[in-house]
Specification:
By secondary structure, the protein is α+β, with helices and mostly antiparallel strands. The protein is built from 5 helices and 10 strands; from the N terminus they run H-E-E-E-E-E-E-E-E-H-H-H-H-E-E. It has a 4-stranded antiparallel β-sheet, with no helix packed on it. A 4-stranded antiparallel β-sheet has the order 2-3-4-8, with helices on one face. It is globular, with a radius of gyration of 19 Å. The chain binds a DNA duplex through loops.
Length: 257
DNA sequence: AGAACCGCCTGCTTGC
DNA sequence: TGCAAGCAGGCGGTTC
């Protein structure tokens, strides 16, 4: 599923492909996305990322916001022929971008730029001080907090597991019990792991593909997520799988304390 | 107020 | 082999 590194990969490709281009037409194939169908004649000024949201800046003071949720993908095709699970499309002179989404969770909306809300995106203007003041004493498990988009935007299940594994902190720890030193460690490891994910062009475990249908390489770097029963690379223990908030958490109970 | 839970979805995996 | 049940989970909304 697309998290910060995957969305960043897409945004960079989109920026290269459509920055400065005019949207000639758009088409909605799924009633759930009705309301995002009348985009035409505007130019794309830039493509940015906010957490896991793709933000296309348009030249009429609005932005097109695309959130892929679980199984959403954006696919560039030279033809405007709808692929399987195609839910929405915008077309340019040289080709079309399709939102492909089997599960239909993805969302598309247009928002006036002046109504835009700031996101606590870890790689762009994240305030550690604000986080420590408003989030760090919460009584939820640290893993749940890392995945809370209001606390930090962009981290999903895969990277939350990898970040905590890297820091040696148990996902079961209550957020309020982490020391200042441990929080600093979480921030630093999180940034490093997300940047590495971007450099590897995302984690293609199941669904993730880039704008041109290519897989990333970060799935080969995973130390915890999906590694149930495998040997911990740090201590030789066994990676375990538990449930937190209805989601799978993978961690090493022997060296994550 | 804040923590926990629910619902949206449908392809894939598992079990009988 | 075939079918049904269970699973996957981001996140906004609801409930406790």
């Amino acid at each position: 599923m697309p998290e910060l590194p995957e969305v960043e990969t897409l945004c960079r490709q989109l920026q290269n492909k459509i920055c400065g281009s005019q949207i000639l037409s758009s088409k909605v194939y799924d009633d759930k996305l009705a309301g995002s169908g009348k985009i035409r004649g505007v130019k794309v000024l830039a493509v940015e990322r906010k957490g896991k949201t793709i933000v296309m800046r348009l030249n009429d003071d609005s932005s097109l916001l695309i959130h892929l949720r679980m199984t959403g993908r954006l696919l560039w095709l030279a033809s405007s022929h709808r692929p399987k699970y195609g839910r929405w499309r915008i077309s340019f002179d040289e080709g079309s971008i399709f939102l492909v989404d089997p599960r239909r969770f993805a969302t598309v909306k247009v928002e006036m730029t002046r109504n835009e809300k700031a996101a606590n995106d870890l790689l762009t203007g994240f305030s550690e001080k604000t986080f420590l003041n408003t989030q760090a004493r919460r009584k939820v498990n640290v893993k749940i907090l890392l995945m809370d988009p209001k606390a930090i935007a962009g981290i999903g299940n895969i990277y939350a597991c990898e970040i905590l594994y890297s820091t040696g902190i148990s996902p079961l720890r209550q957020a309020s019990t982490l020391s200042m030193k441990e929080w600093k460690k979480v921030f630093n490891h999180a940034k490093r792991i997300l940047k590495k994910g971007i450099a590897k062009r995302g984690t293609s475990i199941s669904d993730w593909r880039d704008l041109y249908g290519c897989r990333g390489e970060n799935q080969n770097e995973l130390k915890a997520y999906g590694q149930e029963g495998k040997i911990c690379s740090r201590c030789g223990g066994a990676i375990c799988r538990i449930k937190q908030g209805g989601r799978s958490t993978f961690y090493c109970p022997d060296c994550q304390k």
